[in-house]
Every structure is written in C-alpha cells, then in structure tokens.
UniProtKB/TrEMBL annotation:
GO terms for molecular function: phosphoglycolate phosphatase activity. InterPro entries: HAD-like_hydrolase_sf, HAD-like_sf, HAD-SF_hydro_IA, HAD_2, HAD_sf, PGP-like_dom2. One of its GO terms (biological process) is DNA repair. GO terms for cellular component: cytosol. This is Phosphoglycolate phosphatase. It holds the Pfam family HAD_2.
Length: 216
C-alpha cells in the first residue's frame, strides 16, 4: 500500500489568479501597493498568515499580518464568485485521480495550506470527496515545510512515511516531504520552477499528470 498526498493550489487546481486578486485587494486595503503576481505565486502553499508576513519581508507574523489574514479570509468567497475567478482543475487531473482511486494498493489524501473550508470546496466542486480519505490543512497543522501534515495523514491512514509520496508544485511541498521521510514528486505545471523543485528535494518531476500515473 502507498499513500499519495496531493497539494491543492498549483497542483490540482489553477488558483493563482484568484489568490493573487484577493491578496492584492488585501494589501491595498491596508495601505500597501498591489504586489506583483510573481511574489504572490512564490508564497502559495504556505499558511496564509506566514505567507502575508513573508511577502512583506517580515521574519515573523505580527499584528498587521494577523489582521490582513482575517481580511483576506473575509473577502475570499465574494471575490471567488466574481466573473473570471474560477478555480479550474489543471488538464489531466481528473482522469489521473479517478485512475489512482480505482487502485486497491493506493490511498489518496491532501496536504494543503488552504483552509479546511477551502479544501472541502475544491473537493466537492470537482467530485473528489469520496477519493480523499485523509487530509490536513492550515487549520490543522503548522505551515509547510513542517512535516506534521504528512506525518499526521500517515498516522491516520495507518501508513509509514516511507510509503507515502507527496505530490506538489512548491518548494515547501518538497521540503515537507523530505522532512517527513516521504518521497516527493514535483509537478511542472504549477508555480515553482523545475530547478527550484529539484533543489528542494524532488525525487522526480512530472511534466503531465500521466507521468504521475507512470510512477505507480
């Protein structure tokens, strides 16, 4: 048996446009310039308060970052329902998940910096809820690259970390996997570069969801 743990934003769904718009409006609300989209993409995967602090060059989460986090969350769903703010699956993701879910030797889970509500929304929207037997979110664990998301999912599923594979698009996903003792597959269609993923510990790079299937 193997436990396959997917990141969400940038791995399953293309949410960069939505995340950036909500982040940009939050920065403006607090009197800061709109951040560049590249800066927003660089923090996708981190827990929100840490992400905001890092975008501002802060070493720690302060009161302003906490207030900005609350504002971000308060406007997220309204922005999510605006025209052009869809969060589509990347091409090939649905058939990949369906094929993995059909196998008796594979269990599927999620490890994400999204909130629990955000993850549930994605899984329900795309019909993935029955396939994901375990998950950890920003509401449950310390931010990536801390290994807790992986180790807690392994414990819940009755699996060893050595039998788990983390699949993600961010350096934080690769670092988290290595810290937990799991394998790491970096995906090229997300928000980090291939060189960054390899440098962060990716065991292999998937250039298409079919490459993930070939790995198994």
């Amino acid at each position: 048996m193997r436990l396959v743990l997917f990141d969400c934003d940038g791995t399953l769904v293309d949410s960069a446009a939505l995340i950036h718009e909500v982040m940009a409006r939050t920065f403006v609300q607090f009197g800061h310039p709109r951040p560049d989209v590249s800066k927003t993409k660089s923090i996708i995967g981190l827990t929100l308060d840490i992400a905001i602090a890092r975008m501002q060059g802060k070493l720690h989460v302060d009161d302003e970052a906490i207030a900005m986090t609350a504002h971000y969350r308060s406007i997220y769903m309204d922005v999510r329902h605006e025209p052009g703010m869809d969060v589509p699956l990347f091409a090939g993701i649905k058939p990949m998940i369906d094929r993995l879910a059909a196998r008796e030797d594979i269990l599927i889970g999620a490890v994400t910096g999204k909130s629990r509500r955000g993850l549930v929304n994605v899984l329900e929207t795309h019909g993935f809820t029955p396939h994901f037997i375990v998950s950890r979110t920003a509401d449950d664990c310390p931010s990536k690259p801390h290994p807790a998301m992986v180790t807690e999912c392994c414990d819940e599923a009755g699996m060893k970390a050595a039998d788990a594979i983390v699949i993600g698009d961010a350096i934080y996903d690769m670092q988290m996997a290595k810290a937990a003792g799991a394998r790491a597959i970096g995906v090229s269609w997300g928000y980090a570069s291939i060189d960054e993923l390899i440098g962060a510990g990716a065991d292999i790079i998937a250039y298409h969801p079919n490459d993930v299937l070939d790995h198994f």
